[in-house]
Inverse folding.
């Protein structure tokens, strides 16, 4: 992560006299001790020039929805009034924000209460997290993971806040509790001048933020050269422009005006038939994991991997697709990347709201090389040639056959079967994703749009692999 707003969770499942456990806040003194520990830690990493922000989750009575409260400085204390408006008033005039969290749950039961919303205190809201998508109630990426919170409802979604006229940006974030920055659970981007806390905070306050569901899709979106989050005034027309650099093939970019799809800029079909020769740029993802079914092999929980990618060209970037602890990017040179990974059949955190089972770890590599060259992946003493031309056509899977055969023989003795199910189903695997050329993931678009009335315009980006990005809107006032 380039920066980390750490959200302390001051709640636990408290036993009652009847035996039923209820979620409640820890005792004030314990919370105070934790808060001072966090303050000391954040002060230390800030002195080391890493931009970390102190924060905590506020829930109140549940009538206003959960909010994550963050501070620019490290000198404030937590406040836990019952209602959201009391929370905002308690920090009025201070550099503090409260981000609406998993907004699309039931009103009154910790879904967002837009009737009490305060723009100055909450400049943006969470549109996606480990819970799923709170953008609306009829789109993909449903909120089905935290079943105790119930299904999502249209009454509290992010779109409802926009419909009520609020100027609210959009982010994604993990809500992982046990492991920070889980790749699969969403991240936020702040468009800042540099990585100083003050510059990042300015992006927060100005709504120059957006969210991604998984990988770090880069989006630059403007209307009349005004960045996402801006409030502008225009005449009858305006110039909309965006640049997208995905992590794989981009399928389409949806332009929404007042939450209604106005235009779908389809990128699929524009690049597939272009001839590729000579030196090209491309991206591909490598995933490690899967492995033995723990119902069959209960002690096979963890595997450590040692790997290296070597290219006949240049490694331009390496994105970490990590979901748990135990991962290390050891070194990256122009043509080699050494790494070690640890995959788990279960996170085994024991925390009731911890991450779901994690099965893969890996990387997205961007490489510049000849289209007819061969890369080599070295894993645990074995080498796997990766002809670029073949990867441009299809993904492939490598199974650790020797390991699973040894495990089977050691555990069960001689096993015969007319299919390879007993071995394939329990083998650790490496998935080498299809390589996508630069033309598939990097493109620009602009057009003149008509402006008939006040409105907001935002983007929703979809890759072919269903990774998504949501931008904050540009809020347009029509000149009268």
């Amino acid at each position: 992560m380039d920066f980390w707003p750490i959200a302390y969770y001051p709640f636990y499942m408290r036993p009652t006299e009847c035996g039923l456990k209820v979620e409640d806040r820890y005792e004030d003194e314990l919370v105070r001790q934790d808060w001072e520990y966090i303050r000391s830690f954040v002060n230390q990493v800030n002195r080391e020039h890493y931009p970390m922000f102190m924060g905590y989750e506020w829930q109140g009575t549940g009538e206003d929805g959960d909010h994550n409260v963050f501070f620019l400085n490290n000198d404030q204390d937590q406040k836990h009034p019952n209602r959201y408006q009391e929370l905002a008033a308690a920090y009025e005039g201070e550099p503090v924000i409260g981000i609406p969290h998993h907004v699309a749950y039931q009103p009154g039961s910790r879904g967002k209460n837009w009737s009490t919303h305060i723009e100055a205190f909450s400049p943006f809201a969470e549109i996606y997290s480990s819970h799923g998508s709170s953008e609306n109630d009829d789109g993909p990426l449903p909120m089905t993971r935290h079943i105790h919170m119930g299904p999502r409802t249209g009454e509290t979604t992010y779109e409802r806040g926009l419909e009520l006229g609020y100027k609210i940006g959009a982010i994604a974030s993990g809500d992982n509790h046990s492991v920070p920055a889980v790749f699969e659970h969403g991240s936020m981007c702040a468009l800042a001048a540099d990585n100083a806390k003050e510059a990042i905070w300015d992006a927060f306050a100005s709504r120059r933020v957006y969210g991604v569901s998984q990988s770090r899709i880069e989006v630059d979106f403007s209307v009349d050269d005004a960045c996402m989050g801006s409030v502008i005034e225009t005449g009858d027309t305006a110039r909309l422009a965006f640049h997208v650099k995905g992590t794989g093939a981009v399928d389409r970019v949806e332009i929404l005006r007042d939450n209604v799809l106005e235009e779908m800029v389809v990128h699929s079909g524009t690049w597939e038939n272009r001839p590729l020769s000579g030196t090209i740029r491309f991206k591909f993802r490598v995933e490690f994991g899967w492995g033995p079914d723990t119902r069959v092999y209960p002690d096979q929980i963890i595997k450590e991997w040692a790997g290296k990618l070597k290219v006949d060209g240049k490694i331009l970037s390496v994105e970490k697709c990590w979901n748990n602890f135990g991962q290390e990017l050891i070194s990256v040179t122009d043509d080699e990347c050494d790494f070690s990974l640890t995959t788990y059949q279960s996170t085994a955190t024991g925390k009731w709201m911890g991450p779901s089972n994690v099965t893969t770890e890996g990387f997205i590599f961007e490489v510049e090389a000849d289209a007819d060259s061969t890369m080599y992946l070295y894993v645990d003493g074995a080498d796997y040639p990766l002809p670029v031309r073949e990867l441009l056509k299809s993904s492939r899977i490598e199974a650790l056959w020797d390991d699973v055969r040894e495990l089977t023989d050691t555990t069960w003795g001689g096993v015969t079967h007319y299919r390879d199910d007993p071995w394939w189903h329990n083998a650790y695997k490496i998935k080498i994703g299809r390589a996508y050329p630069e033309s598939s993931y990097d493109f620009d678009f602009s057009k003149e749009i008509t402006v008939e009335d006040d409105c907001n315009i935002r983007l929703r980006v979809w890759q072919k692999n269903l990774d998504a990005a949501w931008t904050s809107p540009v809020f347009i006032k029509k000149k009268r």
